[in-house]
Amino acid sequence: MKMKNKIKKHSLKFISLFFAIFLWVYVLNSEKVRFEKTVALDYILPEDMIFAQRPPIEVSFMIEGPRAFVRAVMEKDERLVLDLNKFNKKKQLSFTVDINPSQLNLPFGMVIERVTPRRVPIRLEKKAAKVVPIRANFSGELPAQMAFAKHEFHPQEIEIFGPRSLISQIKEVSTRPIDLESLNDEGVVGVEVVLNDDRLSFAGSHEVKFQYKVNAATENMVFKQFPIKFLTRTKKVQPSRSTVTIKLAVPEAMVRDRKKVASTIQVWADIPDNIKDNTQVPLKVVVPPEIELLEVRPKSILVNTK
Questions:
Q1: Residue 179 pLDDT more than 70?
Q2: Domains of the chain in sequence order
Q3: What pairs with residue 114 in β-bridges?
Q4: Is the pTM above the cut of 0.85?
Q5: Measured in whole angstroms, how far is the alpha carbon of residue 123 from the centre of its chain?
Q6: How far separated are the first and last CA of the chain, in Å rounded?
């Protein structure tokens, strides 16, 4: 009997403790609190329009309600969609959009006290597109005594679109820095084109390749009155001139010795056996592999028979 009374006594204590904890949790979670929730804004633009000035990308709600629902509200990923076609039936370029608190789905007992910003200013402009060239932006340096033999983009131009007033001012777009120290002798690498204003976008694909070739650095060298050698079986020809001017790209190591460079160059005029008066004969310039012919003036000579 005493054992039953003892168990009954302890049972009442446990039940009292359970109800005390339950009431404490209930009161604690029923307590009203104030908290702030930030929600992203998505805009639906009219088809032929674009933002002249970027509007806010998010809005903050000050909410009051039971503590029990705070976590669920904060963890819920919500976005508000603003269809500007509905808010701008008069087709205005500048107007405001009211943020309606009822757009936010909240549990029973939750109340929105404040919205920031309450009104969103909208500025629109006609959309325009333009094809512009791509400019290379380099970082670092090529190895000593090396230089680009060629470099080009594929494609060389890219189409962008944005507000008409902004598009009209853009003459070119540049790439993110291309690290010169990472380049090999030649190759093709993908590069990223940068748009420096968030109102600009690419009209289509913006995949761009950079093709390059690196050679030993060269300097230009010009020879004036360089003699022409005549290849002919007869001496009964009279050329209009016996010298030309040639422009070469010469490795830096050879620049100081002009005589040595000149000794490796030949300019030939191959005179046909059946030549007639006033015949234009093309000139052939022979240069070693390490030297590049940039220009020869003239490219042909007039030949007469004596």
A1: yes
A2: 34-125 (2.170.120.30), 127-216 (2.170.120.40), 218-305 (2.170.120.30)
A3: 62
A4: no
A5: 26
A6: 151
